[in-house]
Batch of 4 targets.
Target 1
Amino acid sequence: MKRKITLKQIARELDVSISTVSKALRNSAEISEDTKQKVQAFAKLYNYKPNNIALSLKNRKTNTIGIIIPEIVHHFFSKVISGVETVANKRGYNVIIGLSNESFSKEVINMEMLANGSIDGFILSISKETLQLQDYHHFNETMSQGMPIVMFDRVVPDINCDKIIVDDFNGAKKAVAKLIKNGCETIAILTTKDYVSVGKLRTQGYLEALQENDITPEANLILKLDDTLDYEVHLDALETEIEQLFKLNPSVDGVFAVNELYALTAMKVARKLGLEIPKDIQVIGFTDGVLSKHATPSLTTVSQHAQQMGEKAAHLLIDKLESENEDEEEVYQTLVIETELIERESTK
Amino acid sequence: MKRKITLKQIARELDVSISTVSKALRNSAEISEDTKQKVQAFAKLYNYKPNNIALSLKNRKTNTIGIIIPEIVHHFFSKVISGVETVANKRGYNVIIGLSNESFSKEVINMEMLANGSIDGFILSISKETLQLQDYHHFNETMSQGMPIVMFDRVVPDINCDKIIVDDFNGAKKAVAKLIKNGCETIAILTTKDYVSVGKLRTQGYLEALQENDITPEANLILKLDDTLDYEVHLDALETEIEQLFKLNPSVDGVFAVNELYALTAMKVARKLGLEIPKDIQVIGFTDGVLSKHATPSLTTVSQHAQQMGEKAAHLLIDKLESENEDEEEVYQTLVIETELIERESTK
DNA sequence: GGATGTCACGAAAACGTTTTCGTGTTAAAA
DNA sequence: TTTTAACACGAAAACGTTTTCGTGACATCC
């Protein structure tokens, strides 16, 4: 149960000063070869490694980035983390996570905890509650203290910072266009309430695709679901709503859903109503997660390249951290990640 | 772009000493009411928060726990993290993650990075490569430096530390017993190679259940799959192997799979061969993830209570960190999490 | 022999805290 | 008046580094 060895201890053992030890280990020219050898051998023997905390304090740099997300048990978010982690590690950074659980106060508390010196910068996706309240003071305060933020996926125009977003609009548009090209004439959309920016954009993409193909959108084909309800718990409610949509609109032969779960549920309901997929009805989802891949029939979906988002976010943040042009005025960029339509069995 | 304010700055502004400021903020009796008020008001105005790094250095305690897992894009692991995070946050700790990607060297490097002062203790699950190599020096070294480790799920008896494990043996046994009770007479198992401890235990549970019901196990009903292959990529290979099993053993009317994916693939193959689930063949999986829940038919499965595992692991670690009975000799415990059979549509 | 330079090392400050131990001032007790 | 005690505060050390600057011992040069 020996504690980790420190410079001070090495110095005492070898009867030199702390400075000498430090310099010897960093191969300074100031130190004689003899002493260097001696110190380095000793350090190796006792497996000396500099204490990160002390370094952080000294350098005022922790080499750690904080990531705040609404939820981790979620394919998209965990994939983003994976991307962040890969890049961060490669560039010598650690990753510390905070979960907001879609709650405003947890988001604030978590950010405050981390902002007090624990990390150098944030990568985050805004919680639903924060989006509803539209209270963004914590982001601005953090940034005004010189801590950079990179937002991804769920972003808002009100805040001035680097952003990485998915091209939700065009992703949705491409998906719906595909349905049309495949012969669908009555296409429904399963989406979320408008305050979720991504839901809104995907809905717009849907409308645009219809318009470009001279199809008049119908209000009763647009189902805006309340996603503050926990999916997993209110699955029945979801099914009921979708079933009603199908029953009221028997001519529906195409469905575009803004997430995997809505899409899978739609397929389930369709099958229950005796419809065959993709013969009678074709379905496209959003987010390329495990569900899409392993569903039967497997789901055609819009991939957001979550891993790539994480990687780019990490690069963006670290670049900013390491440029440190305190003088040069801040210039923020918004990177758009293109989506990709992955065709599987749920479309013709 | 004002930096975070420090004690020193407050002291200078108010023309008192740093000690006075520190004491005033902590409401020390040494300081007069007047001064306290003044200092506290000023601190509040400038939103003073003590610097975590400085505190960590001073207290030799970071209030951060490190978690090393093989993969994060995985329902089980992300659920465990979620559990850890919940408890950690509640008890005033942060969580920092490291991914080993099932690689020995990444596991070692990640642990070394974190062990140098960044965290107070580890929660981890061993990577497959480490299990194969059976090289556990990094765990022992870390512990010998006084940094506690709590292992979960993938553990080895060779290492002396706190452990949280799933009752894989009994979970599997219960599942297979259920199949037998439901009338299955020829039950196949889809499992992994034996070096994965959990795969081995589940296989043993399967055998035990058969034995207790006087069924003689047959070697060709036991399919040990190579899980070093990436599931997602080698899906075809998986299907082929399972298909062969079914074809060679047409009497199979029950399948126990040691994970979700094997189970789903089995269902897919069965359907392809014209078998109805659960009428002709019943299937039970392991791990209660999204796939089981949303598959059609939904999958009966053995739930491991991943969230609970994370929570218990966090409690165990933090308890140890906060007891600090340096003197009292170490006593390690192994907690067993009971499994639960969640019945859905894939069984009668 | 004195000035200068090189070499090898140590002292000390700094990062931002907390805490122990003084210490000067004032009021109360003797 | 002198002693004592309470009060309110400051100095300094400590956590473990890195780095700047200073310095003593020698060797070199004119």
Target 2
Amino acid sequence: MKLTSTTKKFILHWGEMGTRWGISRSVAQIHALLLISPEPIPADEIATTLEIARSAVSAGIKELQSWGLIRIVHHMGDRRDHFTTLDDVWETFLLILRERRRRELEPTVAVLRECAAEAASTKAIPATTLKRFSDLAELLELTDRWCDRAQSLSPAGLKRLANLGDKVFKLLG
Amino acid sequence: MKLTSTTKKFILHWGEMGTRWGISRSVAQIHALLLISPEPIPADEIATTLEIARSAVSAGIKELQSWGLIRIVHHMGDRRDHFTTLDDVWETFLLILRERRRRELEPTVAVLRECAAEAASTKAIPATTLKRFSDLAELLELTDRWCDRAQSLSPAGLKRLANLGDKVFKLLG
DNA sequence: TTGTAATTTCAGAAAAAACTGAAATTTCAG
DNA sequence: CTGAAATTTCAGTTTTTTCTGAAATTACAA
């Protein structure tokens, strides 16, 4: 795929943001490329466009698939897999939320609950530390619940909620 | 500071989670240690407790300070800086939100707006790509606004909102 | 001032992460 | 089946990130 200065700018930026959020630069770049490609593209085209090895693309695709962020499409008369992102960015957002919840939020809540329980049953850990474990567990559990409830929304529903921001904050007066 | 198996578990887990969110392991560990320390501790104690070089602690502290996550405290008769986290985890949450918004969300929205504008004014970029830029910009801008509104809440207010989850989702019927 | 403790800086080392290219494996049309 | 295309695996390399320890700087008590 031919990149323009605009598409290049987006891909590079998305790659940088990836690194800030724990995603490797080239995986994020692959995602960026697929996000803006007008149609599904095969792995070798990703490799030549981003100037990375075919094998790195293979690994990157596997990673993106583990997040559920890309789909495989086939074309008549072409044995190669062609890759594409979902077409709704809100659905993408929900997927990322779901995975981060599963991979990071829930395990962390579990660890914090364990730590709180252990801290409660030993004199070796001061009360202030126990309180900290509980406070963190509470915060992350509430965050977890928000993420969970979001999962029950359709992409369009999530978008509607996002637009309802003002009303939500007024709930607090 | 003497670590128990419980506090060790928490520090190691927090360090791992750091790496998943783009924070270096040892910086996250320093943060974890300060989170659970009953009182402020000096840099050299952080170094010996976590078994890392004093200079690494210095860099880590600088990083945490750039996020606003730690405070310096002084004790009579001790020239060393002692470090501590905020005591409200909801305030910590707000700080992280604020910084991520400033460092990542806003620059990304800006780039997407630029890309959309450029895509709109050249035939070299297909309409589908322009749409993708706009959709992403819209999503991130709405996210940005939520983060912004959260900033106007007190830590206690944020906690109240977090507990209001069910009501918020019922707004959608 | 002066000397010492505390902190920071920084060049090089070490560790971790990511990438390459060749080989192995899988897939599938003929 | 057979062979070529497509994909994956993986050992070794490169790149990036992080860490160390010595030296420089800063802060401050005497």
Target 3
Amino acid sequence: MPSEKTLPRHTQIADRLRADIQSGVYGLGARLPIEAELATLFDTSRPTLRQALATLSAEGLIVRRPRTGSVVVATHVPVVLSHAVTSVNELLDYPRDTHRKVTATRYVKADDALAQQLHCAAGKEWFQITTLRYAGKSTVPLCWTDTYVLPQYAGVTKHRRHTLMPVCEQIVEMFDEVIEQADIEIFVMRIPKRMAAALKAPADSPAMGVMRTYTGSDGEVFQTTVSVHPEERYRYRFELKREARAAGRKR
Amino acid sequence: MPSEKTLPRHTQIADRLRADIQSGVYGLGARLPIEAELATLFDTSRPTLRQALATLSAEGLIVRRPRTGSVVVATHVPVVLSHAVTSVNELLDYPRDTHRKVTATRYVKADDALAQQLHCAAGKEWFQITTLRYAGKSTVPLCWTDTYVLPQYAGVTKHRRHTLMPVCEQIVEMFDEVIEQADIEIFVMRIPKRMAAALKAPADSPAMGVMRTYTGSDGEVFQTTVSVHPEERYRYRFELKREARAAGRKR
DNA sequence: ACTGCGCATTTGTATTGACAATTAAGGCGG
DNA sequence: CCGCCTTAATTGTCAATACAAATGCGCAGT
């Protein structure tokens, strides 16, 4: 145990308490002794002990509240695989130099078919923006995209970088909206007749459908996007990385 | 400003420094004054000031190192959308009551075609497990799955819950492997002839292909899984939630 | 000119002491 | 018997100080 002796006290204490929690000395829902007691127990000062408790708290193992004490709320540090993006662009990683071309815009009222497709109430009003996405100078589009935004956000088409940025980020920027949640759904479909010519792909040929739903701070869906990617033109790819809670250890 | 006066000093100081960083008083890469100086500046003690700096550090705005001081490494608290799973089962959210049926196992050496498909070196040895996944008592399979694991993990087929748990988690459990990273790739394909009968789907009809690659702690891929879902039998779905770094504010 | 070592600077860790804020629990009065 | 209010237990906050550890920089020697 050569490294043990050089570890800071508060780390040693945290490690010990964590082990005790995992081994069941302090079970789920149990209350740890009060700070003063623990400090005496470990023969240390209260601030040092508090630092140890703060570590466990950051790891999500305990919850600390005045008068109640420190309660064990988890017995193991959750290790999760996570996929985090800082920009919606990373969600659909298109090559750098793609751009959209707006082919039509209009106001629509969701009929039964559209309502079912978008998972919204029938009769809901949307502003629809239809676009084609191209890679570089290619004349074969990557995909057909129908974007449905709330009518009050129709002005988004006037954004100065409208054909380059994701629409939802334009809305965030122009209207102070916040993306609270994004839902992604991927499925296999057939190219609809109305898109075949524009996509330069045979009607009824296989395609990858991607539907993205964006929910704002008020819990309401403010945008839904449906993309149709003809066979072979696109692969959806992402990675999840291992991540313990409360990042922490040095280096 | 009724709440301001009751905020703890260290919070006030952290807020002030955060604002200064965002407004450019301390730009990206700039060094904050040393702790002693800042303590004097804010007319407080070093421990209190250190608590404020610890907050900013946890938020990822600054990095603190002995002798170097506190360096600004970000001007804004990154807000990310993230998708976190605690079990690989959540990755492909099949209905609760699905199970696999192993149809064949064998050792294979990757030829050029397989190497290209799996993104591995030609000649690589794998143990291949071929399975069909069924929902409940249905006799129509949800998908055909070829799982390729390192030869030393071939014993995974003897796991007591082999047909219920994800293979990679069985490997984690039986061989003390760790999933460091998972890569997911989704694409549209055609049903290969050899799978058509078993899948009860026409050869060459559209399908959704899902390839998952698991990387272990040594950076080596220890498992690759290729699933083929016939049209209409499966949708890939997941959600990303907004998450500010350093969770924290109370309640 | 380059390399290695010492040193001074800066953050990290730990102790002691005191008071404030929060809140669960018990007591008191209607 | 119920509800409000007091009370006390527990964590939260803050200060002053001391020493340890890490490391960039300059100086000296080759």
Target 4
Amino acid sequence: MSERTLKEIMSQRLAKRESLLNEGVNPYPYKFDRSHLITAALEDFDQLAEKTEISFAGRLMSRRVMGKASFANIMDGSGRIQLFISREEIGVEAYTLFKGLDLGDFIGVSGKLMTTRTGEKTLKVASLTLLSKNIRPLPNVKEKDGQTFDGFEDKEQRYRKRYLDLIVNPEVKETFVKRAAIYRSIRKFFDGSDYLEVETPILQPLYGGASARPFMTHHNALNMPLYLRIADELYLKRLIIGGFEKVYEFSRNFRNEGMDRTHNPEFTAIEWYEAYVDYHYLMDQVESLFKHLCADLGQSTFSFKGHEIDLTQEFQRAPMAELVAEHVGIDLATANEKELLTVCRKHKVDVDTNANYGQLLDELFDALVQPHLIEPTFVTEYPKAISPLAKHLRDSDGTFVERFELFIAGSEFANAFSELNDPVDQRARLEAQAALREAGDDEAQVVDEDFLQAMEYGMPPTGGVGMGLDRLIMLLTDNPSIRDVLLFPQMRPESKG
RNA sequence: GCACCGCUAGCUCAACUGGCAGAGCAGUUGACUCUUAAUCAAUUGGUUCGGGGUUCGAGUCCCUGGCGGUGUACCA
């Protein structure tokens, strides 16, 4: 739409590019030696001002021309600074070049720092070089005293053209800088506990470790189907079997499912496994990971979804059935499926009438309890029916397993178990999943014969945790949508309708 | 999936009950040596998301499709 007017602006700029080339000026030179980042020079202003010749490189963001002298602002990766350019100072030729610049051009400038009459720290430009010619106009944003005017606000365009969002809405950068800091902190936590960071296949002949539909692809040379991983769990367990006793991986996972505020088709999780520990150990460990993160970020209370949450407090722990029982006022430990169904109906929880005890309990929990778990809470003892990779709860009848999930502000943040390591039991559980698949559940897990064989060689008692990092970053940066913590969220192609 | 809201110039927005599609910024031309949402003067720029319909006349009303946002459901 409105291509014509955009084309006019662009053809003007293309013409400038041409005439520069004709004058023998390369509008795209190869390098520029800058002496300072903008913010570094501003911090060191008193040392540098009036004395030292310094240089910056950056993008021209605004301009105020007043005849033979001008002010402009450039932005580099660190920040912005005002430039003062006078014809007297830089000469007629350079001043003409400056007046021919467009917003969005990259330039290199050198000169001395000064303070303007109104007290703004400014570079008095002595020389100026074009570093890259802009030919497509940037969204035009005005700024004053930290307030922005006429911003670039269309969320769709911001997600589709994230590079523009980053240029024009600098606060967006902070989320991604913080994301990197969180990764660094997590790495430090595990590296410091003698964990080994590993990389396992993203392209897998069979997918597993979670209940989800996969993306499928095809390898030409092998002429075989391959799946993009939905989780790295089964490979990390192979490594535990192989004798690496503590492993972790930042795992980009792919799930062929719906998209919404909290789901992107590709997302990042961290999973870690440690030999000879159980889920009680893991709860303590997860709590200390959060404390470690808070210390590194220098913050203990986080605002998220309108709640103020202290992540350094002791996390609550409670079995799933108890939490549901508290809510419905019925002792569920002795309830049968029929009674649970009645409870579901009473609380208007929509369920499949063929659902088993575990699925019903899970439904009740999701509908009635989870939204109210605001303070950090480990929900423990999940039904075996929905946990095919977890060990039976010790000293019990086998209805429940040693598993926990961590909830904060009504959302799930971690999922962990005392990992099942009995190969006979594991085979039976996966075969039960396969039966569910036969019955039409296309998210049920598949039997991975190689994984079962690996376990038959012997797997030590092991604890393992999976934690969704995108959601963690949403929590720690107070962003309500996963799209705000992904640089390039998945979008439908733009179409002309 | 369902509901609601949105889509008009490069950007931000306006246009009453259906009556000539507008403004600011950006762009272009000119003036201006301490401005800072610079200012002043002039000026260019439109497939109003696509398609169909009603009407003398549609940005506006109706149908249909697209994309996005929010909520909700399903799903981990």
